[in-house]
Sequence to fold (755 residues):
Amino acid sequence: MLEILRRIVQDVGAAPDLSSALAITVNRIRAAMKVAACTVYLADEDNRSHVLMATAGLNPQAVGRVRLGHHQGLVGLVAERQEPLNVADAPRHPRFHPVCEVCEEGYHAFLGVPLIQYRRVLGVLVVQDSAVRQFDSEEVDFLVTIAAQLASILNHAILSGATQELLNPLNTHTRALQGVAGAPGVAMGAVTIPHLLADLDDVPDRLSQEVASEEAAFHAAIAAVEQELREASDRLAPLLPPTEQALFTVYRMMLSSDSLIEDTLGGIRAGRWAPTAWRDAVLARVRLLEQAEDSYLSTRAEDIRDLGRRVLQHLRAGPDQHPHPAAGRCVLVAEDMSVAHLAAVPPEQLAGIVCLRGSALSHVALLARAMGIPAVMGLGDRPLGRFEGSDIIVDGYHGRVYVNPDPATRAEYRQLMDTEAALTVGLGKLRDLPAETQDGYHIPLYAKAGLLTDIAAARDSGAEGIGLYRTEFAYMVRESFPSEDEQYQIYRRMLAAFAPQPVVMRTLDIGGDKTLPYFTIEENNPFLGWRGMRFTLDHPEIFVTQLRAMLRANVELDNLRILFPMITTVEELDEALRLLARADQELREEGWPVTRPPVGVMIEVPSAAWQTGQLARRADFLSVGTNDLTQYTLAVDRDNARVAGLYDNLHPAVLKTVAYIIENGHRSGRPVNLCGEMAADPGAAVLLLGMGVDSLSASATSVPRVKWAIRSFSHAEARELARQALELETARAVRQLLNDALRRAGLGEIVHESA
Ligand code: PEP
Ligand code: MG
Fold:
């Protein structure tokens, strides 16, 4: 059975479209179970019915025509109970509903299994037989197993709109594809796939006698990719400091490798088609590198493969077709996204980001937020190429996208974008006003940064400094660990840009979804693994280099504050402080006039929260990282779109933990900052102010909205809001309380109800 099941799943997965997939399913199941009929009904939620969408054994004319009411017949009963229904003699069942078009007279045995994904009934899978008999447990298990697989395929089809096309072919209203809200805002543009990848493994074994023209095509493709890399690297200039552009140099070096070029030309001269000769030369190197145990070399294999695809794309496109995105607003769509992907589009053209994987707290989403680009994450598997060039709307508030939107949807979003633009202009007036409540209570509002390019946005936002500088982003866009001097340059620019305002620099926090291309860490549970301080304490040479660069950069500026991430024990903090003292001592001995900066601890793990007092006594300040604190408190992976609906920093358990941290931090006489994304949510910011937090760090684009919210409440009102919120039992109730409060205070425009 397992083998049959595997083959069915494989064939269904390879089907070109949903109706073929359903037809394959019913035919295969009917043959495998040796039953008279197998049928799939899909739930049509809009019309509250179940539609017969594929059958092997019943009248084929019924497909797409027979509709049963939501609760009608045995199919309705299966959907209602959400469990298998095994009936020996269906026509005698009180819920049996005869439908003349399907010609099911003579069928007695009935087994119906619901198709459920994420608690939602997507349809019902039915097998019928002529005898009066109960299906045995092996048959039931088989159908239940196949239903689970089919449900996941259906779920993808629903997300891509394919089921809607099948159920209601005449309905022209654009359906939203639902993902996860990544970065707030709304954008429109053309779907742009960063270098739509041609696959090397798909190149056929083809011969060609046109040696001269094949050689010319090959040289032209190499030149085009060289040019493309140069342009991409230039485009990165405003985005990254020059030292971080090494990635492109490495690519260009690989591209000019004599042996790669010579082997390809050799293949062409031996009579092979240029793409075939290129494929062979590239894959031979890839295989060699992949066999290497060394993780650095296996990473290079991926780089060569990537280069191979780029050249192949040009070879196949020919000299006239250029794969650059069209001029105009672009929405980058990719499975995963890196900073290098972002460079595929000139910054002034980049309107939005859609990432098929990941979630609101993935580093791509954090980058998008820092850049003020609306983003939707976790849309799930879907054929990327299909959408290339289509118009797309990105609704980063609700995590929705609309591909080829109809005029009404387009007009609705156009209006929303106009309103947003007007609001942004209006809020610009708050730039130089303090983040102060109506009764004069001032709470410092800082911006967050990850790259040097964030400096300008942070300054324009009216923030009072940088509350969290995530140093790992500078490590992530390079080809090797940066030297002390390279880091010094970056940190110095950051500190100088804000002095005398404070800049809180967090030491390297890699791991989780933040990986370094030159230091891969393979783990089953990366968020519970070697990340943040665990990694740096195991690599004191990397840690001390970073601390030295920070301390040197602070000389005579004196606005540095150092923050340690992912602390889970007191010993970790003691060790980190010891290494800081060592770096400080070394520099003094070398004659640097360094000063010891204030040192903070991130409280982002429940163990640290419960030891707030002990940690606070060893540090100068605390900073609550609600992004991780929420993930670890609720046991919800912040990077997993499947459980994104459960991730909520307004969960009462998270709020109670934050309240505990603030209380105990204050009891130890230490100020408590909050630097998770929660601080960028205007309602939550007022709540945190009421809970007693001493400062907030939000992304630069959110600073004006948060300031507006703070300036719209009195300190007493915020405290009362916090008192009420802490008594509520669900995140939904807290959200409702905050939204109501914002509306009453006249901030209805920034209340974006969740989907
Ligand atoms: C956090 O965890 O809240 C935080 C600010 O850190 P990061 O999102 O970089 O993990
Ligand atoms: Mg964190």
